[in-house]
Every structure is written in C-alpha cells, then in structure tokens.
Write a structure and sequence with these properties.
Structural class of chain B: alpha/beta
Radius of gyration of chain A: 24 Å
Distance between the termini of chain B: 64 Å
CATH class of the largest domain in chain A: Alpha Beta
Strand content of chain B: 15-25%
CATH class of the largest domain in chain B: Alpha Beta
Distance between the termini of chain A: 37 Å
Radius of gyration of chain B: 23 Å
CATH topology of the largest domain in chain B: TIM Barrel
Number of helices of chain A: 13
CATH topology of the largest domain in chain A: TIM Barrel
Order of helices and strands of chain A: HEEEEEEHHEEHEHHEHEHEHEHHHEEEH
Oligomer: heterodimer
Number of strands of chain B: 16
CATH architecture of the largest domain in chain A: Alpha-Beta Barrel
C-alpha cells in the first residue's frame, strides 16, 4: 500500500515537473479568498481573518467569509497579508543596463524638457520588473532624471504588457532645484564657481516660471473666449497642471542650503510642492514640517553627504523628518535593485523611524502623495488588490513572499533570478 | 573644530592602549564552533585568551557588558577600496609592480564608517583597469592611527588583483587601441606575462648557476609575476562571465598556479562545479546586477548556488556604502537560497579570511585569534540589527554611545571634500573603476565614440 502511495507521489512530482517545464507561468485571474491570515491593513489596524479578491479589487475583509462559486481558496493560516509596496522614485523600466547607454531612457537632452513622458519609455518587459515584484514591490514611480525639468514621471503597477496597462493614472512633473553642492567627489569646481552656476540656474528657473505663468494666463484667456488657437509649446503645456495647482510639483532637492532656498521659492511662488531626495532634511526638519511639505526620501542605504556627518546620517534622515512631523515616503532611486525597497524602509525603521511609520512610508503615504489613495496604499474594501502574502515581517531580510497579487491577478513568483537558481543549483550535466 | 580633533586623538590614543578587556554575558556566534549563550570572552594583549562562563579578569581589564547582545567575529570584506588614496594604475595591461600598500590613507572616514558596520578587516584592492593590476593590501581598521603602516595586517599573505572582461577591454582596447580589445586578448595578456616571467626566472637561475655571465635586468614587474608562479601571492581576479572564469582557470592550470579567488564572479553559479574542482574560491555581491552588460545574466542566488556546490564563498562590498552593512548583505542569502545562519555568517567572516589567507588569525571567535569582535543589538542577520561596539585587537574603536558627529582625523581648511555632495549614486567612488570612470567618460570613451561614429561614416 505504502509502496503504491510512494509511486503515486513520484508520478505526480514527475507530471508537475513536465507541466512546469512545458508551460510559461502566467498570472492567474479570478476571485481568491485568502483565509485565516493576519491582515495588516495599515489604516484599520491588524485583523486576523479573511480577504476576498474579486475583479481586481479587495471585495471584502472580515472573519468567516464564505467562498462562493468559482472562488479559489488560499489557506493563509500563519501567514501575513500586507499591501504591495510602492517605491516613490525609481528608474525601473526606463533602463535595462546602466552602462549600455542605448538601453537607458530616463535622461533626455535639454535642461527644460518637462514634456518628456516616462510612461512613453517604460518597457513592460524589462527583466528587472519581475525581479522587483517578487520581493513585494508592486508599484513604482518611474521618473526621468537629468536637467532642471527632466520630464514627467509615471506611477506604474508592475504588471502588464503595455505602459498604458501598467499606468496607475498618476503622472507628475519633476523639477530639480539648482544645487549648490558638488556633483561628486570628482567635482573640482571652486565654491565660487559652484555658487555662480547655481545662481545662473536659479535665474533661468525664475524666467521659466514667469513664462509658465504667462502661458497659463494666455491659455486661460484664449479658452475663455473660445478661441481656437494652435501653439507649439509642449514644455509650457506640460507645466500647466502644476502652475494651476491641479498637481504638485515634484522637486528634487538635497543639500541643506538648497532645501531652505527651495522652501522660500515655493512659498514665494505659491507652489504646491513635494520634495524628493531631501538628503539633508534632518538638518531642517522643523522648517519642512512647518511648511507642510511632504517628502520622498532615499536611498536610505547611502553614505552621508558630508565627510563630517555622523555615520548613520542617511539611515536616520527619514526618522528625524518623520518625528518632526513631516509626511515621509521612501524611495530607492534605483533601477535593477528597486527590489531592495523593503530594506531601505527597514533601515529607516531601525534608525529612528519605527516600523509602523516606515511601513506607511512605502504604502499609504506614497498613495496619498501621488493622489491615488482611494485605490492604493492600504488593505481596505474597494481598493485595488495589490498585496503580498508573507511568512513574516516584509522588511526582514529572510522573510519569504508566498503569494503576490497585482490588480487581483495572482502573479507567479518567478523572475530571471529564480529561474537561474532553478536551473543551476544542481547543474545537469554537471562535471561527470 | 580644532578642539574636536584633540579630543578625538586623546579618545583614540587612550583606547588604543586598552587591549585587555572582558566581554560579559554575551550570546557568542563563534561561526566555527557554534553558538555559546551567556558567555564571557577574555581579551589579553589584543588576543582572545579565554571563552567561557563566569571568567574573572585581572584588575585593570575593561569590562564590557553584553547582556542580551550578540558577539560576532569582526566582519571581513574581501573586496574593498577604502583607506586608499588611489586605486587604478590604468596605464598598462600589466602593472604587477605597483602596490596599493604604497598609497594607504589611514584618515579615510570610510574606515570609521566601515567600523560602524562591524567591519574590522578589509582587502584594499587595486582597481580593475588592467588584466594584471597592482598588488593589494589586507588592512586592519585601526582608525585613529595616522601612520599608514599601522593599517597593514601583520602576517597577511601577499595578494594581487587580476581583471577580466569589460574593464580592461574598455580601458586598453577601446581606450588605447592595444591588446586586450576582446576576451581573447585578455587571455593572451596573461599567457604573455607568465611566459616572460618564466624566461626572466630562468635567466636569473642561469646567472646564479654561472651558466649566464651577465646579470639580467632587474624588473619588479617580473619579480612579482615570478612570485605568483612560485605560489607566493594569492590572485584575486575581477571576473563576471562564465567563459572568462573558465579561461583563467585553464591559464592558471597551464602555469601550475593554484591560489585564486574569483571576485564579483556574477556568473560563478554557472560554473560552480568547475570552480569547486579547481579549488578556486568566490567573493560575490549579494545582489548587484545589471549595471553593465556582463552582469545582466545574474542571480541573487549566486552565493547559495556556489556554497551548495562546495565553493568557499564570501560576500564583499566593493563600495564604501555596502561595506557598512555586510551583515545585511549576508542575510540576503537566506531570502535567496535558504542558507543557514552559520553558513550566512561564514560568508562575511571565516570564508573571506580563508580567501585572504588569514583564517589562522581572524574570522571566528576562538582562543588565540585576534580579538576582532562586533557586539550587536539584535541578531546580525536581522535587518534591524545595529552594531554597538566594534573591537580591533582588543581595542574598542567604534562605540555607538560615544559616537560623535564629526569623526574625521584630519580637519584642515581646504580639506578633502568637506562640502555637500549632491549625488546619492556613488557607483564609482571607492570601487573598482575609481579614477578610471572619469578617464573613460571624458577622454577615452569620448574618443571611442568619435572613432565609432567616424567608422560609421565610411559606410
């Protein structure tokens, strides 16, 4: 009897093996009832119960939910459910291989190119996308980088076959505030030269802004009079939602002096702003809090920006700002290792931010900052089903992700990295 | 500012002398001899003198309470460029004569920051611009010392940097229009160099035997290569692709050279059985990949696959950023490949010690070894772990309770980059291509592009 059982088991393993070898694993659609999990909702505490995924959304959270017809049951006893994590600043999808410039699409020529749209260049088949999502990061803000107005970034879910399919419907104009700092250790400009260049950049920024205001007025006037008019000013067109305060302007600014100047600049021009980077936010945390400006900071795993800073300056930055009352989201500012977002958050947590705030910094706060909190950022009825099932704290290094849902699709936990592992752990042929 | 420095020097010098200490009541992660709960470690003269329960020290010993804390051997980084003024002598495909030990910078703040991450020993390496680069220096992180010689680890074997693939090709082939311009060329650079060294050696042998009348011309480059042939220098070879890893093993086999550690070795997982058979070791990144083409076909499971195939493996940093959290990098092998705690910890302690030939001195907590230790709050493989004290030769050189904002040793006007650096991406700082990236981007690479575009016009 036991022998027959053994053979049956063997046969089933064999058949599964063949099935796996022959099929590409694809995301699975349908309704899923995740039973008996510890559900970390973010907004409504921790619930031990069930979560129903239907038509891409969280249909219900509660206890003793019954699986209706065609609902796939996923036993989550002893498991945890968290919202999928959101990286608030990444180049994922915009670059395949850093050193191969023809695969790099985040930096267009020109200092003033806000009309360059990241969503256009997002490659849905970037090898790093599955590598990232199997670590629990389900959404990223893919952003251009480069000059003063490098383009418009896009919030994307890490599932889909076209940029449009991946888009979360939130695009944001990026600005890089003129910097007085050194561009790197190799930067040998004198302090005067640096200042001169920064002043010049500031002047040109102000000119751009005045023109943008002017353009907005002309555009409004023309529309009010129902004039049909043609323009060829895509840059100015791109700035309209920001000038009209329909959207926040996402400003990259890092050094203390630059942050202070940026605070004055947005106050003077009455701009609704989000600050990105903010490496030295800890030096002016109170001013940021007072101005009520939300911050996207990171990479947390980064060296202090001045030789004389404490060794943990970058680790502790997020916590210091958050303690001062700033709303802080965390980013990796990476491409292929955007998958390390949970670890950036964990270091921030360990160095003063605390786990709860750090978790919000990669879920709820980004959703709020990007204006998509009605659908993203927490586990609540009606929100998009971007979630992960884990065997523990999603920030802890050795934690495993057991299931991944993006927009209600049950996504296979497979990437180039896992496939190479499967192939090469025991090589066939080996040496013999 | 000046008073800070004086204070710091006093602080450091006073601690430099305290080499007798006892660590009380710790959970000791010995790495080689299991986990010892509620254990004391007695340190005498900078060495581990006793390990056990309730040890009574002699008077005058510094007492360090480690109740509810973990003690790990000082972390060892087998690939780093901190504590160096320069990294790349990128002027010839073979520069075996140069030695980064001549360019040590004991005042590099990165050394202190590495200590704050529990790293007590690092392998200060030459860069990867040349197929045969310069000799490297295994350094102890004795931060506070101002004499460069004090960084050198006594008794550490000589090591040398080799490099395969894109870097030497870009610098010399694309940059200077000389061999190597391909991976074929890289192989011949090694064979050529070793053949020359064999001839050099024979000439000297003949001269000493009286067969040859005139002494051959002395060459430090050839002397160094001869020492490699004699097995007196461990090769640490920057490498990525499986084919080039196999190539170097064939070359070494032909010249009967046995001691080699492959560095980075992102595709080591593809040839793990071959590496194990050769007796080569591997020092890898936990998860870096895709930053250039030769690391595109990588997997974060590399360390696990190598380990499971019997290759002695370490996790390195090659970065002044990563070196600060190698304990976290090692833990990634538990997410990617399920290594046990002991296996994961070995990747940053005893295994890199073996690769540097210093495992008789450091890399585990055993009586007689150097008292290089880290005291952690939290298990070192937890992402929330924070090193509290880092001890080198029995001296506490990082203490989180006494950590001051400014820990620089050389505070002078016009000092090294005291102002703000407006870039979080420091890929090329303190890494393999330091010094060369500028050269490549601004000179050679621009020239290369002009050449490419120029060539295009001819069609």
């Amino acid at each position: 009897m036991s022998r027959i059982f053994f053979l049956l088991v063997q046969a089933s393993i064999l058949f599964t093996g063949i099935a796996n070898a022959q099929q590409v694993k694809k995301p699975e659609a349908g309704s899923f009832l995740l039973k008996n999990a510890t559900i970390h909702t973010i907004t409504q505490g921790i619930i031990v119960g069930d979560l129903l995924v239907r038509e891409g959304r969280i249909a219900e959270i509660g206890t003793g939910l019954l699986a209706g017809q065609d609902v796939k049951l996923v036993d989550c006893t002893g498991k945890h459910i968290y919202p999928g994590m959101i990286d608030s600043g990444s180049r994922l999808g915009l670059v395949e291989i850093d050193a191969v410039s023809v695969t790099s699409d985040f930096n267009e020529i020109g200092d003033f190119v806000p009309h360059m749209k990241a969503l256009t260049a997002v490659n849905p088949n970037a090898v790093a996308i599955p590598v990232t999502r199997v670590n629990g990061v389900t959404t990223v803000f893919a952003k251009p980088d480069g000059g003063t107005f490098p383009g418009t970034g896009a919030l994307i879910d890490l599932l889909g076959y076209s940029p449009e399919q991946m888009s979360c419907g939130s695009e944001r104009v990026i600005m890089r505030f003129p910097s007085t700092g050194r561009r790197g250790r190799w930067d040998r400009r004198s302090e005067e030269e640096q200042k001169k260049e920064a002043d010049k950049a500031m002047q040109s920024l102000n000119e751009i802004w005045e023109k943008a205001l002017m353009y907005s007025r002309i555009d409004s006037a023309a529309r009010a009079e129902n004039n049909t008019y043609l323009t060829n000013q895509p840059q100015m067109e791109a700035l309209l939602p920001v000038v009209r305060k329909q959207q926040s302007l996402f400003i990259e600014v890092n050094g203390m002096q630059d942050i202070e100047k940026a605070l004055d600049w947005v106050a003077k021009n009455q701009i609704d702003a989000v600050f990105m980077g903010v490496a030295e936010g800890w030096r002016v945390a109170d001013k940021l809090a007072k101005a009520g400006i939300a911050v996207i900071t990171g990479p947390v795993l980064s060296t202090p920006r001045r030789e004389y800073d404490r060794y943990d300056a970058a680790y502790a930055n997020a916590g210091k700002m958050s303690k001062a009352g700033v709303k802080v989201a965390i980013r990796t500012d990476n491409a292929e290792n955007t998958r390390n977002l949970p670890f950036h958050a964990a270091f921030a947590a360990a160095f003063g931010m605390g786990k709860e705030e750090a978790l919000k910094a990669v879920t709820l706060y980004p959703a709020q900052i990007f204006g998509v909190a009605e659908s993203y950022g927490s586990l609540e009825k009606g929100k998009i089903a971007n979630l992960i099932v884990t065997n523990g704290d999603p920030f802890e290094t050795k934690t495993k992700i057991d299931a991944l849902f993006i927009r209600g699709w049950n996504v296979p936990l497979e990437s180039r990295h896992t496939l190479l592992y499967d192939e090469f752990l025991q090589r066939t042929p080996g040496l013999k | 500012m000046k008073s800070n420095v004086i204070y710091l020097l006093l602080f450091c010098s006073s601690m430099m002398t305290a080499q007798n200490a006892i660590i009380r009541n710790a959970t000791v992660l010995t790495v080689t001899k299991g986990i010892l709960p509620k254990t004391d470690i007695l340190i005498t003269g900078g060495k581990i003198a006793r390990i056990g329960g309730s040890i009574t020290p002699l008077p005058g010993y510094q007492v360090i309470d480690a109740t509810d804390k973990y003690v790990l051997p000082g972390i060892i980084d087998a690939h780093s460029h901190i504590g160096l003024d320069v990294v790349n002598e990128a002027t010839n495909p073979v520069t075996a004569e140069v030695n980064v030990g001549d360019a040590l910078d004991p005042m590099d703040i990165a050394i202190y920051r590495a200590l704050a991450g529990g790293v007590t020993v690092s392998h200060a390496m030459h860069g990867s611009a040349n197929a045969i680069g310069g000799q490297c220096e295994t350094i102890k992180h004795r931060y506070g010392a101002v004499n460069p010689d004090q960084l050198r680890m006594e008794g550490a074997p000589r090591t040398i940097k080799f490099a395969l693939g894109e870097n030497p090709i870009r610098v010399h082939g694309e940059g200077n229009k000389i061999i190597p311009n391909t991976r074929m060329g890289v192989e011949q650079v090694f064979r050529e160099a070793f053949r020359q060294a064999q001839i050099y050696q024979k000439d000297w042998d003949d001269f000493k035997k009286g067969v040859r009348k005139k002494a051959p011309e002395y060459s430090l480059r050839m002397e160094t290569l001869s020492d490699i042939l004699k097995g007196n220098i461990i090769i640490h070879c920057h490498s990525y692709r499986a084919d080039e890893i196999l190539m170097l093993m064939r070359v070494l086999q032909d010249f009967n050279i046995k001691k080699v550690c492959f560095q980075h070795v992102n595709e080591g997982f593809k040839v793990a059985p071959e590496l194990a058979r050769f007796g080569a070791t591997a020092s890898v990144f936990a998860d870096w990949w895709a930053y250039k083409f030769e690391v595109y076909y990588s997997t974060a499971y590399n360390a696990a696959i190598l380990t499971r195939n019997g290759v002695t493996t370490s996790i390195n940093s090659d970065s002044e950023e990563l070196i600060r959290h190698l304990y976290h990098e090692a833990a990634k092998t538990q997410r990617y490949g399920d290594l046990s705690d002991e296996e994961a910890l070995a990747l940053i302690t005893i295994n890199p010690a073996k690769q540097l030939g210093i495992d008789d001195k450091v890399g585990s907590i055993e009586v007689g070894k150097d008292a290089d230790l880290v005291i952690f709050e939290g298990h070192p493989l937890s992402v929330y772990a924070i090193p509290q004290k880092t001890i080198v030769d029995g001296v506490v050189l990082f203490d989180i309770d006494k950590d001051r904002a400014d820990m620089r040793l050389d505070v002078q006007p016009g000092d090294k980059y005291p102002t703000f650096i407006d870039s979080g991406r420091e890929m090329y700082d303190h890494s393999c291509m330091e010094g060369v990236s500028e050269l490549l981007m601004e000179e050679s690479y621009a020239r290369y592009l002009r050449y490419k575009l120029g060539a295009g016009h001819q069609h």
